[in-house]
Specification:
Nucleotidyltransferase, domain 5; five-stranded mixed beta sheet; 13% strand; globular
Amino acid sequence: MLKNITDSVFSFDVEWIPDPKAGEILYDAAPADGPGEDARAACETLWAAARERAGSKDPNLQPYLKTILCRIVSLAGILRESPPGGEPTLKLVSLPADCSDASKVEEKSILIAFMKSVGRRKPQLVGYNSAQADVPIIVQRAIVNGLPGFGFSDRPSKPWEGVDYFDARNSTYSVDLADSLGQYRDRPSLHQAATLSGIPGKIDVSGGSVADMWLEGRLPEIVEYNEFDAFTTHLLWARVAHFSGLLSSDAYVREQNLVRELLEEEIAGGKAHLERFVGDWDRLLAITGQSY
């Protein structure tokens, strides 16, 4: 279970797609700078190679690809800051911040913004299967893009001597909720763990749909879906922290109220899609007979 809560916590989720550039480099696919048929053909070359390796003859299967062959298209999280003696505050962080700005949509821009912020703030990172997926793809794609670590890559000589984002087993700064809930066959999906706990899980979209959405030019919808997962991850973190004795029952209720207030603020600011999250949260609380 969780050992501690630091003054800064970032509950995050990353969305990625097959990288058309990988298809071009490895399989001579036609160059593709953005969504479209050339990009789809490049992605298909990557899927076809993976199907062949797996011995699958299903032409419609989009098999799992190694993360280094994929491109990050969105990263979202809930930043929780709790200064000593003060009350915690929450903030929604979404990258790219502006889907219409080509410079911000670039994978390199997303990586730089994330690593600079994390390298400066040194928050406790919280994810779901993050030790096996989200953190590795950030590292791999930063290396592919030729980027420095901006402090995110720093490692102490010993676990107790500083922040370490690459040792989920020994460092309290890399929290993988999936590892807290089970191993192997008994490990639940984020959707299962969340919805059974009265927390919204996957709404309308699943991770397997992201590639097609991007190829169709629907990046804003991917960011919206990513934000749903960020809120889900943070609410599940609060529940695990409550179980771990790190949040009292009153503090757990306050944390959920903070999430509700953040959702209402974001909706009032124009993020109408989050109304679906609030509605599903109320529905699940009613079904499970829980309240906050």
